[in-house]
Every structure is written in C-alpha cells, then in structure tokens.
Amino acid sequence: MGIFSVSEITCYIKDLLDGDGTLADVFVRGEISNFKRHYSGHCYFTLKDAGATLRCVMFRSRAQFLKFEPRDGLKIVAGGHISVFERDGQYQLYVDQLVPAGLGELGLALQQLKEKLAAEGLFAEERKKPLPLLPKAVGVITSPVGAALRDIITVARRRHPGIPIVLYPVQVQGPESAPQIAHAIRVFNRLANVDVLIVGRGGGSLEELWAFNEEETVRAIAASAIPVVSAVGHETDYTLADFAADRRAATPSQAAEIVFPDVHELERYIRMLRQAMETHARNYIQRYRLLVDQYRDSRALRRRPIEIVAAKQQLLDISLQRLHHIVKEQFTAKQHRFKVIAEKLAVLNPLMVLARGYSIVRTPDGRIIRAADQVGKDQLLEIVLYHGRIEARVEKIGEEHDNGRKD
C-alpha cells in the first residue's frame, strides 16, 4: 500500500476535480453568507441552502465588473468552476459571474443605489429648487442628433421664441455618457449663463437609459445650483435622475412645456394684473369715500359742541391724508411691478429686435443661420423681417475682414 504526503493527496484530488467536465463549467444557486470584499478587490463568501454550504471566491479581475453589491442573504446564481485550494485542502467554487435571482443585475443595482442615495437625502423634497417664471436662457444637455432636441426646439419656438437655447452636446448612451452629462452640468454651473437646465434623451430600454441611473449623473444633478428638469422619454418608468431633479418631465416635449412660458399667456396675465390693480384702487378709494361721507353727514356730529366738531374734522383731515398716502403707495407699487414685467416681456420679444432693423435668416426647415459657413452656394434661404418674409438664394459667400464687413 502506497503512502502519500498531504500535498500529494491534495494534488491528486485537485486533478480529479479539474478533470471533471461537469465541474469545469457549473452554475450553482444559493444564498450568500459571510460575504467579504478584500482590500485587494477579491470577494470571498459562502453559498448555502437548507442542506449544505459551498465556499466561493471571485477574483478582482471578475468582481470589478459587478454592477451590484453582493451582500449576505441575497439569493444568487454563481457560475464558474470547482477546484481545490491546496493550502487549506478545501474545494471551492471559483466564480466567474454572479447573477441575482429575480430582479436581474441592473434592476438590483438600481434598487441598491436608490436606497443609498435616498438615505443621504439626495431625493428629499426640501432640496428641490423652484423653476424661474421667465428664464433669460435655457440650457439643454442631450444628444445633438436625437429626437429629444428637435422636440424641445419645436415646443420652445411655439411657446416663446425669444428665449435662447444653449445646447451642450453629450452622449446619452454608453460608458462615456454619464461622465459627459455630469461634466456638462458642472460647466453650466460654472458659467452661470442659463437660468434652468433640461437634461434628458428619448425613450429606450433600461440598459439604454442607464446613464441616467449612474451615480455620477445623479450626484451632479443634485449638486446643481441651477434648477434641473429631467426629461427622459419614458412616461411610466422613473430613472434616479428623475428623483434627484428639481422637476420631472415624462418626455422632452413636456420638459419644454414646463420650462418655456407661453408668451400669449404672459400677455394675458399682464392685462389681468393691470385690470385687477385698477379695480382694486377704485374700490379702495370708493369704500373710504363712502365712510367719510357717512361721517360728515352724521347727525350726532352736528349736535356736538363746536370745539368737538373742529377736533373731529381735524382727525378726519388726517385720516384722509393717510388714506391718500396708502392708496398712492399701493398704486405706485403695483404700477412698478407691472412696468418690470412689461419691460422683461419687451426685451425678450423677438419682434422688437426686428423692428430696429435686424432680420432673421433661416433655412426652409427653420434652422437659424448664424455664420456664413452654415450655407452653400445656390442654397435657398428665408429672411424674416419686421414686416413680411423674403425668399433668397445664395449667390456668393463672403469672408470676414478686419473691419468686420464681408464681401
């Protein structure tokens, strides 16, 4: 009978396991316990069920691609191969992939991150900032070639064409999308050149929308000093960006409806304020005038001694002066408010710019031309004037000289 050393018998058993085709590529279902992530990045844990336990290890080269965080009590399916760890003389599962049972990897990662960020208060209502009633400029962070941008521009032109749109083009899908979106938000905050941000894209699957569930994107939205409207085209489902944003829109078109005020509604609102102010002032004066007349006509006042009547009349004069002062102050304040709103509206009215002799040059499909290199020879253009429109064809494209004039 041969005698083996511990190392020899362990190697023999290891060779047996390594040579078994079933154990070379196996999937095992169980519940995680004793999970530990080593500082090296390797993960050590045990899989268990009602009747047995199995030691497992997942090396850093595989664990770094996990989208969720394994934890005790989680039911998973682990794939890999079974072999012997010779130093301890124990067999274990060397895990190549780890899949949650039930939600799926992305769903579990989303749930875990949501719980983490909610615990930090990033989704709290008290953090939400109000949107400006009349923004001077609107920043848009999305793909420059997607339908989302076209929808936003279409709605903005219809509701308030005088408010400029500043686009920061980014990828909205893929591994580079989340860093680009977060960077764009920080750039707008540093420049402070817009009053509100629309961040979003068109609809898609959970994987396609994942950039708006990434922790980097969500934290950038929550940290923005500029109010943010999330506009991811998924009417029924929410991304984490929706929870962090100051306002959630179901689609990019709805985001534009929220951000861009209707210029015609503003005009009606100003007229209503003016009428209400005039009516309030008239009623205020009429009410006190009636009180004064009633006081003067009082029979009791006429029966009083002359000195008392004189004192009452003096008090009446003081009251009238005070009433006049109060009415004048209220009227002046409301008049000033009306003037401020009217001036803002006039500044943002594109027709006022055209009235000063300027014009808008655009292509037949509505694209605004800002530079000569945007057009080509023989291209049809539409010139919008204060009164009417002109159709023109490009015959020559000039170059800018030092004096600012073009040929």
Automatic annotation (TrEMBL):
A single GO BP: DNA catabolic process
Keyword Cytoplasm in annotation: yes
Superkingdom field: Bacteria
Similarity section: Belongs to the XseA family.
Species for this entry: Sporolituus thermophilus DSM 23256
Enzyme nomenclature, EC number: 3.1.11.6
Coiled coil: none
Listed GO MF terms: exodeoxyribonuclease VII activity; nucleic acid binding
Chief subcellular location: cytoplasm
Reaction(s) the record says it catalyses: Exonucleolytic cleavage in either 5'- to 3'- or 3'- to 5'-direction to yield nucleoside 5'-phosphates
Full protein name: Exodeoxyribonuclease 7 large subunit
Domain Exonuclease VII large subunit C-terminal as annotated: residue spans: 122-339
Upper lineage: Bacteria, Bacillati, Bacillota, Negativicutes, Selenomonadales
